[in-house]
Protein 1
Amino acid sequence: KAKVKIALIVESTVDDKGWCQAMHDAIMAVQKKYGANLVEYSYTEKMKPVDAGSAARQYVAKGYDIIIGHGAQYKNLILEMADEFPKTTFAFGTSGEIGPKNVFTYMPESEETGYINGVIAGLVTKANIIGLVGPVDGGDAARYNRGFILGVKSVNPKAQVQVAYTGSFGDFVKAAELAHTQIKAGADVLTGSAQQALGALRAVAEYKDKQIWWLGQDTAQLAVPESYKVIAAASYAYEAVVEALIDKRQSGVLGGESIPLNFSNGGFVYQFNDKVGPVLTADIRKAAEKAKADITSRKLVINWKDVK
Amino acid sequence: MKPSPRILYIALVSLAAAVAAIGIAAIVLAILGANVFDTFKVILTEPLKDIFGITEILVRAIPLILVGLGIAISFRSGILNIGAEGQILMGIIAAAATAIALPGLPKIVLLPIVFLAGALGGAVWGAIAGYLRAVLGVNEILSTVMLNYIAAQLYGFLLRGPMIDPAELQTGSGTPQSVRLPRSAWIDRIIPGTRLHWGIAVALVLAVLVYILLWRTTWGFKMRAAGAGAKAARYGGIKVEQCLLMAMVLAGAFAGLAGAVEVTGVHRRAIEGISSGYGFSGIVVALFGGLHPAGIVPSAFFFGLLLIGADMTQRMMSIPANMVLVLQGAVILSIISAKMVINDPYAFDKFSRALSRRRKKDESGKTTGETA
Amino acid sequence: MAGKLQKIRSLEVDGITKRFPGVLACDSISLKVGENEVLALVGENGAGKTTLMNILMGLYQPDEGSIRINGQEVRFKTPNDAYAAGIGMVHQHFMLVPNMTVAENVALGAPDFHRFMRLDLAGARKRIQEISEKFSLPVQPDAYIWQLSVGEQQRVELVKTLCFGARFLILDEPTSALTPQETDELIVLLKRMSAEMSIVFISHKLAEVTAVSNKVAILRHGRVVFSGSTSEQTPASLAALMTGHEVNLPVNNCCEECGEEFFSVRNVRAKSDRGFYALDGIDFSIHKGEILGLAGVSGNGQRELAEVIAGLRSVESGSIGMPGFELTNKSPREIINSGLGYIPEDRNTEGIVPSFSIKENLVLKDFASDEFSAGPFLNLKKQEANAEKLKESFDIRCPSVATAAGSLSGGNIQKVILARELARNPKVLVAVYPTRGLDMGAEEFIHKSLLEMRARGTAILLISEELDEIMNLADRVAVIYKGKILKILPSHQATRRSLGLLMAGITENAPGAER
Amino acid sequence: MSILTFVSNVLSIGIPFSVALLLAALGEMFNQRAGIFNLGCEGIMAMGAFLGFIPAYFLQNSPLAGYANLLGVLAAGGAGILLGLLFALATVTFKAPQGIAGIGLQMLGWGTAGTLFRHFVGGVTGIPGLPSLPIPGLSKIPVLGPMLFSMNAMAYLAFLFVPVSYYLLFKTPWGLKIRAVGTYPRAADTMGINVTKTRYQALAMGGLLAGLAGAYLSLGQAKMFADDIVAGRGFIAVALVYFGRWHPAWILGGSLLFSIAQSFQLAIQVMGIKFPYEFAVMLPYVLVIVVLALTRSSAVRGPAELGKAYDREKRI
Ligand SMILES: Nc1ncnc2c1ncn2[C@@H]1O[C@H](COP(=O)(O)OP(=O)(O)OP(=O)(O)O)[C@@H](O)[C@H]1O
Ligand SMILES: Nc1ncnc2c1ncn2[C@@H]1O[C@H](COP(=O)(O)OP(=O)(O)OP(=O)(O)O)[C@@H](O)[C@H]1O
Ligand SMILES: [Mg+2]
Ligand SMILES: [Mg+2]
């Protein structure tokens, strides 16, 4: 097989314990699997859309085969470049659109992970108040949040989900502030997505001796010191996407497909945290496992768009 | 032949400034274990090596020039406008909405309308700060800082709500962005295969117009007078408050236009993160260019180079992206300091007198040596 | 502090040279001041007087030359060194921080009131009390500087300097903003103080020089051109020595007929910035071709009156007008267009835009008129031509008309303002302290210009503290006191004494009561 | 939820969050009182936050862990002083225009913190941070106790610093000098005050406080660090100095108003009232403008020489 050069362009950093790290880790894993002499990899961080344009062009000039713009804000730029450089494979997500013939899109169906987290939250809460620390109401976060709400309702219709937003993906100081507000307002289980979520988790961790819990949208959160508050966490496994990009390119398909990420295609991992102790009862675990199985087998369809 | 004192002075001060800038950056680079010399070589030469780099520099220079021109107008009129960031956003929104609403118009009609709409959007945002300052006496630094945040939220609200691309909702990705602008609202690219677009011409023409406005028209005279000596201007019958308001409207219009040009020339749809900090870099460019169009244009090119070059170090030297900021900061601090020293007649006077004393001493030393 | 150190028996400067970029401000100056001597330093604007004194105070470093006290060479690197040696200076412009109290200003400069983490304001008050009693200079330690009148601030400056332990006093134009009474008091005081210390006294008013000093030195272009005993000189001989020709300040010979009543201010009331009525029913009128002198201690409403006339302050009641034009509460633009000329009090911030070129300042009021613009565009050629013409006729000394006006000397700035205002051929001219701080040459020029305007039929309101100026130029003199006109009298009936009394608010026994 | 608990919740979250703004704004107040306008506050805060975080991060499991926070605070303050002095070098000694130099400093501080963090640490990382120190007795007072007396040590010190800075500014020789060089540097100079030195001191003080504000963000508030931790709070602090009219008490008021408005808008969102949340997020910014517009007072002006370099030799 010929060597493939992959470039990744991200808006935050590749170790943000969230969105960007998931893709980075996946590429690294695939690189390890395929061998470094087969996969060459480079990344560029902190790219605003306009800067991403220069970086991507530079990558094309350097002969990179696959260029991933990890964020839908890069959509236009990628569509435009795909036009100009038809021999290069481009990819961006989240998007469910079918792009031109040298563009792949990928789309995590995050309502699935949200739903399972919601099931656990609904069963864990004693106060029947659950806090959602949203970055903004859009994109991936919107799907996750709606799935979560549906998950809660499915097991505990009385529980109330308090949804509030910081207005920013990265301002984790404000997220912490919001988490404290949620807790003061009675919430005893919290969740949230994007980089800012770490701030909220950090805030939850401060209630060390109180029964206040966190559900993570990234398994990297199980490795942080605050993980004693994380009952379980889901995360994206982009390995499948990355492998598909490489394999398809090598078989002559440069793009023109949208690759979803879901439980059925192994696009998500879900991990329980045994270290949290008795809060994670066997019943709860079973309910979550069941939801996951139903979702994977498509027995359960999550109508996230119905949630306003 | 001995160099003239003036040239020697400028050379020495510039050298000191360069050493200082490189020194500051070198400390950080050394902590990272990177090669200082190579890093600077990449920054300053790599972008100029091919057409791709050069056009990207120009692409960055376009919004910087436009924002810088607006800043020059407001600063010259005595208003410290640091609200360009918010004004850019409002310009993008207005321009994109207009373009989307009028897809049927031919380019030659639509583009000017879109530019005007962008300028208007920015102008309205600028006018708020102008009104607050002129009528209610609210300090403009305070109001423009706050208005930047308000604009960011308003922008997010519009892109997530009323202006979101319906496809984003349908396919479920939900990314806050508008639909793609109609092709009749795209600024053409100058060189195919690069992103350089005709917005550069707009920027350069406006640079000339701003020069004419500020130094050749009665309005420019009024605004500069109000900025340079509000009291005297008032005694001279100039309505200072009106000038402040006007200056903020124009500054906002330029920032809004920068947003409009950026969205129609580069991104072609309203997305988050278009401004990329142009609101602040534009202030630096304007002050760096001496608040004069003839200085702003080259200073925008220089900052374009710095941005592209520093960005390249991330890929070529594996230096963290934030190093761009370190370099810009170090360069700004040392160059403006050097500029002040170079333009200080008192310091130069001392230098040239010390120099001539020394040369005299050398000469007399030589002559006595010869006679001896 | 004071008195602990040895007395300054002599202070000599020797060969002091100081250059500024493009200017040789002091050119090898040598002077000597002996024990209990009062040396008057005179010279045209820009002769180098202030520069020399700043060198003595350690503010500037001389390029060449040395300073000796009691024969011993000293070097002052900072003003602290000068204070330590017992030298103190009252600067040409007040060096008082306006938003601090008198005591704070004193404490600021006196390190012995600086305790660890504590300011010894009580000590400063006590020191102020002592000094003000000793020299009979009444000041209130807790008043804010901005609340004080110019004369009071001058007193504070003196007290402050003495509090710092000065035994050698430099006074740079201390009288330029004082009323006649205040000036007289100061001169008496200086004479008394000279028994204890040596004094350098800088002034453009030669009568004061002869009254107070026993030695005089004249500077011109940074050089000492004359130095000798005062007793052999008269003001006129000094003026001749200074300028190289005889100086005759022009006089209004009063006999000419004035025209009809033209400009009137009727019962005007207006508030000051601080909210009280600074103008409390002001009432007067000026005829065509008449100069009305408005005498008064500054701070009695002069500034507010001028601003009200120029449309910069609103009138609460009453009216201001010319035949066919009501000025009351009109905008400055409308008032300017109606033919009002205005020479403001603060020439640097009100009269000109300092960073603007001379030619721009010369059209500050007319840049948008048909003459200097075409539609929205400025006519730079005409601007330039206008500037060249006025530069010529008003003898504005500048490298070029493109020079920033703020870099000019005070006299030349005043000429720029005068040129702009007079070139507009105003029907009414308000001139506020037009010659403050200017040398005799400049004063002569401005007085001549005002009289020319009068001859052309302009109604002129001349606001001044200089009784000589008013009595020389005015047809009638009005005295303002606490926002009211106390009295208006023909200038031939006015005497220094009668005006002085009126300015102090005393109306009884004043002769020539008449409207 | 009763009104009382609502108010108490809003306040008990809002008050501690005003600390970083308060510290930075008090620092900027000293700068501006001395006539120097430092937009670089943001950059100093970023460095302070980074250095405050570093010892806690590296010493977490070492025997020195107990001193990590103190070390961090000292490092943050020290770096703040150094950056303040660097700013002084540019603006006081070389007389560089302050606005642009401030933006340069902001980039430098932010960039350095981010670069080094990226190199030595990596992504967003939590630390134990400062423990809260409920004041015995007082913290038990209902409502008020948890609101005012359960904060961490830095927060108490910051609030204590409000009267202290008032005292420093208005009652000490140093404060007198600061005010004098900001209002009328030439007068100060003729009275033997070293204008340059005083301005350097003010900037060092401003830097120290901005550095501490940064450290509070990472150690006291977020208990973690990422390079964009400051997120514009430095600019808000500068704006609050204008809001607070260069007076410590007013600045305290402004910081509290802003932070409480912030926690109020979050609380409203949490309550689940339906409206676009973006407008809630805007609230504090709008409120600050509105309050200032309604309470304007023409009598209060800034330090007269704010933003102007002083040169003894120059006449104007
Ligand atoms: N701060 C300054 N910087 C540079 N040049 C200055 C400055 N101040 C004054 N000058 C220059 O020095 C020249 C002489 O000014 P000076 O104060 O001596 O006035 P002058 O020629 O004596 O006139 P006048 O008698 O009207 O005061 C001015 O023409 C001006 O160009
Ligand atoms: N700081 C300065 N920079 C440049 N030139 C200066 C400066 N100070 C004084 N000069 C110039 O030096 C000369 C002497 O000025 P100085 O102020 O000593 O005159 P002066 O005799 O005190 O005049 P005046 O009567 O107007 O007070 C002038 O030509 C002036 O323009
Ligand atoms: Mg002069
Ligand atoms: Mg002088």
Protein 2
Amino acid sequence: MKKIEAIIQPFKLEEVKEALKAIGVDGMTVSEVRGHGRQKGHKEVYRGQEYQVDLLPKVKLELVVADIRLPEVVQTITQAARTGKIGDGKLFVYDVAEAIRIRNDDRGESAL
Amino acid sequence: MKKIEAIIQPFKLEEVKEALKAIGVDGMTVSEVRGHGRQKGHKEVYRGQEYQVDLLPKVKLELVVADIRLPEVVQTITQAARTGKIGDGKLFVYDVAEAIRIRNDDRGESAL
Amino acid sequence: MKKIEAIIQPFKLEEVKEALKAIGVDGMTVSEVRGHGRQKGHKEVYRGQEYQVDLLPKVKLELVVADIRLPEVVQTITQAARTGKIGDGKLFVYDVAEAIRIRNDDRGESAL
Amino acid sequence: MYRWNHVVLATLLLSGAALGQTVTDGEARWAAMQSTVKAAQSAGDNAWMLVCSALVLMMTGPGLALFYGGLVRKKNVLGTMMQSFILMAVVTVLWAVVGYSLAFGEGNSFIGGFHYLFLNGVGAAPNADYAGTIPQQTFMVYQLMFAIITPALISGAFAERMKFSAMLLFMVLWSFLVYFPMAHMVWGKGGLLNAFLGGRYGCLDFAGGTVVHVTSGVSALVCALYLGKRLGYPSEPMKPHNLVLSVIGACLLWVGWFGFNAGSALASSALATSAFVATHFGAAAATLGWMLAEWIKSGKPSVLGAISGAVAGLVAITPASGFVTPLAALGIGFAAGVVCFFMVTAIKHVFGYDDSLDAFGVHGAGGTLGALLTGVFATYLVNDGLKDASGRPLPLGLVDGHPGQVLNQLIGVAIAWALAAVGTLIILKVCDLLIGVRAEPQNETEGLDLSMHGEEAYNFEA
Amino acid sequence: MYRWNHVVLATLLLSGAALGQTVTDGEARWAAMQSTVKAAQSAGDNAWMLVCSALVLMMTGPGLALFYGGLVRKKNVLGTMMQSFILMAVVTVLWAVVGYSLAFGEGNSFIGGFHYLFLNGVGAAPNADYAGTIPQQTFMVYQLMFAIITPALISGAFAERMKFSAMLLFMVLWSFLVYFPMAHMVWGKGGLLNAFLGGRYGCLDFAGGTVVHVTSGVSALVCALYLGKRLGYPSEPMKPHNLVLSVIGACLLWVGWFGFNAGSALASSALATSAFVATHFGAAAATLGWMLAEWIKSGKPSVLGAISGAVAGLVAITPASGFVTPLAALGIGFAAGVVCFFMVTAIKHVFGYDDSLDAFGVHGAGGTLGALLTGVFATYLVNDGLKDASGRPLPLGLVDGHPGQVLNQLIGVAIAWALAAVGTLIILKVCDLLIGVRAEPQNETEGLDLSMHGEEAYNFEA
Amino acid sequence: MYRWNHVVLATLLLSGAALGQTVTDGEARWAAMQSTVKAAQSAGDNAWMLVCSALVLMMTGPGLALFYGGLVRKKNVLGTMMQSFILMAVVTVLWAVVGYSLAFGEGNSFIGGFHYLFLNGVGAAPNADYAGTIPQQTFMVYQLMFAIITPALISGAFAERMKFSAMLLFMVLWSFLVYFPMAHMVWGKGGLLNAFLGGRYGCLDFAGGTVVHVTSGVSALVCALYLGKRLGYPSEPMKPHNLVLSVIGACLLWVGWFGFNAGSALASSALATSAFVATHFGAAAATLGWMLAEWIKSGKPSVLGAISGAVAGLVAITPASGFVTPLAALGIGFAAGVVCFFMVTAIKHVFGYDDSLDAFGVHGAGGTLGALLTGVFATYLVNDGLKDASGRPLPLGLVDGHPGQVLNQLIGVAIAWALAAVGTLIILKVCDLLIGVRAEPQNETEGLDLSMHGEEAYNFEA
Ligand SMILES: Nc1ncnc2c1ncn2[C@@H]1O[C@H](COP(=O)(O)OP(=O)(O)O)[C@@H](O)[C@H]1O
Ligand SMILES: Nc1ncnc2c1ncn2[C@@H]1O[C@H](COP(=O)(O)OP(=O)(O)O)[C@@H](O)[C@H]1O
Ligand SMILES: Nc1ncnc2c1ncn2[C@@H]1O[C@H](COP(=O)(O)OP(=O)(O)O)[C@@H](O)[C@H]1O
């Protein structure tokens, strides 16, 4: 099993979710994060005090998938999340040692 | 060392924490996430505009534990978090290459 | 490639970010988490109802770096985040199987 | 019709010259002048009473809605605010149809009649029994605002677990069975407890210690006991989700309470001022009372404590506000702050019921305390509304040398307790049989906002 | 100067003894007394009108700012609130310079003149044409508050996508081209539609059904159509980011609306009370109307629905508030709740325009409905301001047996629709040519708060 | 007692017929009529002043509490709101015991006496020196609200780092050492700077430019300097955590300020209207002034800027509000907006002190500016309260051809600066010695909410 961790633009979440649903991937966990990369941040000014904000809102998607589905899922995500502009984000893949469904103790790929 | 990542129902957090404390596991990191799986979401309507909400609030627990404690901790978590209904969540295990205590640079299992 | 996951004190984030910038590390993802460890929590009382709060606000930093930069980056983070007091946090390292830049499908270390 | 007085007045005032010609007879001239003066008096009093009506509405929405809304968990904030908001609509309709008539129409000692059904006859002319210088419509709408907030106060007790439909039914029945009778008994002409208009046991309740706070507080207790605890209480943390909202709410309650108490003078008189001052002083002293008690007992003075203290003080001073001196108000307020602190932090835990937002601990206890202390501190030096045959003001409370008043107050309080407790229990039973009062467990877990109203309060992701 | 009346009065009242000596002649004594009574009357009326002015300002800020601010996405909340707030500043300056003069100065049937340029001559003395018992300055500042909120209402239609600079320009031009003329036509002396001061087509609009709500609502529709949909609408979720804010806003609107409607009696009279009651009843019934319609249609009564209903009811009762009985107010309100519910949930989706916060659905539809129903339910029993030669009150609406009034109302509404639609379209074109009205796509995506104002509303991390 | 006037009135008005029989003598009839007219006048004025008292309280809570609360970091929001809220309680008790007496009792040029200790003798009868048509109790409670908000303003300077206990002690001492004397000097009978009641240097301060804003603003500066910077300032980001709260706060301040300024006419007179208009115009122009200055200098008009500008304008117009024309108010406001913008954004950074919420930059600078400009623009055309022997109004400011007034204003401002600076420094030293003023570093890091009050404002997880 592999874990996919994709950092994407928040406004792309809906599209990525739809695309994943289309290929039958359901299980995923989403969280709000802030990211820093090549994308330029913005300036905020509060009563003359300037702040350079370089952590921008992003959404992190985490999915654990069977090895065999990995390429397909990765491609689906990158395609749906792409705008071609700086800030589109990154996708990382990790090995998973074990997966368990809490409800009934199913283990391994059958737990996904 | 292994990292346990458990996605559980928010209202189960207290119980899981107690159970872990009972077996002497202290270190953990918790975050708010939203998850999507088999659990059905709900409908929200704002002035006639319907939204199907399929990302439901979950809590993510992260613990790095010594290999030897893994089974015990996993069992403790799954038992405490279980209601037996869809939506109970998942637990994933990953390998950890290194752990460091920032305070004093302790490394490896002694850092946990 | 390695993934560094550092749990630090929120008020140290700015310093750590500066330190990383100084050594040329740009890409990172940050999220708000709550952590539990040796650090004592605090008591809150609402109309006589006491709550022992043992999950304290922390910041989680995630960076994927090339293997070769790992030691330097780890040292930079631990040094900048250290106060020497309990609660400074932990740093974990994991293997990364693959990294992809969503914008243009760059893969591997060149995607970082 | 409504514009008449004003038009007459304008005619008279703006054409002083013409006046001399039209009114030839001296007595007619006097009468005309008297009517213009009456209009001028009414302008001042009516301005005040309309403002007070608005202030009392503001106490319910947004005041109470915020105070309570901030104290519940995030998933219940809309449902909780809605319980206040919807009463602004529901009780208004009840009042228009028959409520005002049952409370203030002439009837027997316990309930009014149907004289004012559909507000028939409630117009521009004053009702001299209640307020001789303002249109009866003003009096009617002012009293309506009290009828709205009283049931809303109860909702603090069953927060986070009552079905919305059952809440609606409960509130309608409660208005009929508890509020209208109680308001009639204490304030209605010929009411059993009306000290000024022929009541058997003259109970002093300037702005609603018994009518509003004892009834709502005791009903709250019954609701808390009947509905049982919230799922997970007290093991799961149920911290207030947004105390900033509660602070705003408490401040608006404080400000609005001036309308509640000082408005109960029913005129922009020195008595209104006196009640205004007592109200403010009571709130201030209670804030300090609660804060000090908490500081000593728990080691830290909490903001939730301070605002709870303020509300407790406002509750306790309510029945007394038009009868006591500023210094007595400080005393009553301080006592209320300390007593309610112990009710909420100690007594509640001893008994173990789940009065989610302490509607009983604050309104029940504070209202009872205030009603009794009114019997102690009320003085004719502040309010000489009661006169003997020769026109000399009668002594009011214990401090005036009239200990019997404390007994009368006790009777009033006892009746309010009994009516509220029995009435509420019956109503809950009925509601439970008809539609069930408690939300389904999964709905309670999901939260009222989603399960009852299909919404979430905060959508911060987008 | 301004203090004069008061000083005279004090002299007279506080030295009753001296009075007898100074005033020897009976007639002079009468005159003096009349002037003190006039001052007393003015004190009451002025107190009321100043309070109402404050209340109407409170409707815009924080009322409307919160109501709208809560409905947008997090990234646009400050920009949305700013649209209301900045109008409190901009329109005030316009009004001082020339706006008041154009609206209420004498001119032709369509627009006032320059008589009151820079508020010249607008001082302590009453303007008897409009309000004979209060300083004209009071009348001026009260009317200013209406000129502020009206354009602010429009902003609900173009929320989340209009450039701030364009918004400012738009609002200035709109005030000149739509608001000042419309206010003059309906309320200005000699205005085409002024029922009380010599208008050709006497249109009954007590507090601004046509002047405020139809104009803003119709302009909102034109804006929504002209600007087009928000990026991502309707596929992306655009849920209200903080309904708690909207509930607070709705409550403050309700409370402030008493100033709006009851203040339009321009005196603290029984007519003010009557309008106060009608306002409250209209809001209450509409809340129930919307809630029931939604409950039946969607299965759940939402809090957003309840507060939207309240606003719809307040809108619809606005033109009628000084002319109808309490029971008629209940009817008008209920109708408004149901009709606006369908406008917002059904009709809008059929046509597919993106009126982000339903400014048209609520103000346009509710205002039109209210203006027409005013023609039906207005009655001389409530307002006898119109008299025949012999001083007998004239019948007002259909219920008084004067069906022609409905036609007059239709004419008024038609003129308001036409002026608003054409005026707004022209202004949008001009603004678009000069500076562009729509925010750049990346600015819209980033949110108005950051892109237009360089700020973020919430910084919860630190 | 209190109800007396009203009862008399009712008797007279409601039994016109009986009147003729009872009052046989013409003069007695006149006297009775005069007393009813006096009551009518009082009703209007009292209504207005009670409303104004409520409005000024609303400025502190929730107004200022929100304005300041939104500007701090999340972890300090409750502690910051508490600083305003608790003053509503603490100062009230001080005022009742001795504060009112020290400020408004007769004494010497610098401080009042103990005449009104425990509010002895402060009842229903007017105090003609201050306000001849309202109960002295009304005047007392109205002035109390000023005594509450003034110290609360200071708290903006030491936000996020002062110990709660030290804050309480500081505020009590500050009331005695700075506020009561300053209020007496400017407004008390016989006060050194009282222009109307026999002061040596007649300083024009209608509603508190020197008494309220200069004293609090200068004290704020001293506090900021004495306490030092917040930990991490200015390297760590310290963005406002919730600007929505600040916008609500600013709006409520604006609305409440009508009570502050227009209420300072102490009657519902044309002067009140004039002050109302000046207040509104000043706020509006200052909003635009700050916005334009910021737009030009930083490229974007921020919402925080707009609301800060509004407050700056309200501050500056405060001393002038009862003396200047509407157009002068626009000018004063605009100047204040621009000047305070530069104080806050440029001057502060030059000197480098950490006035966390700019209490000095806005209140100190704006108050000083306003006090001086009052000397320029005050005119007898607006306020003819000062008369020469023959009863002709005296010229007031420079525009009236009385340049000396500017000097008097300077003297008033200088005294306020000196008293505030020296007094505050002494008090801080005392507090520091007794209990320490600054929070422990770990408490500051943890946040005031947790460390001082044991609570958190937001619990969004559950
Ligand atoms: N090395 C990294 N480790 C972890 N997260 C990263 C890394 N590089 C980028 N990110 C995440 O990806 C987001 C997008 O990266 P950015 O460099 O702005 O865009 P792009 O990859 O399209 O050039 C960042 O905001 C950050 O959250
Ligand atoms: N493949 C997956 N990868 C990551 N997270 C998952 C995956 N499957 C489920 N989850 C997480 O677990 C939660 C519960 O899953 P769900 O399928 O609803 O329950 P159950 O496993 O009991 O059937 C989801 O809301 C989601 O957060
Ligand atoms: N075993 C662990 N797994 C995951 N996170 C941990 C673990 N131990 C500690 N943490 C995280 O590190 C934070 C700091 O740990 P703590 O024990 O308080 O400090 P220190 O390591 O300096 O003694 C915790 O709040 C928690 O978020």
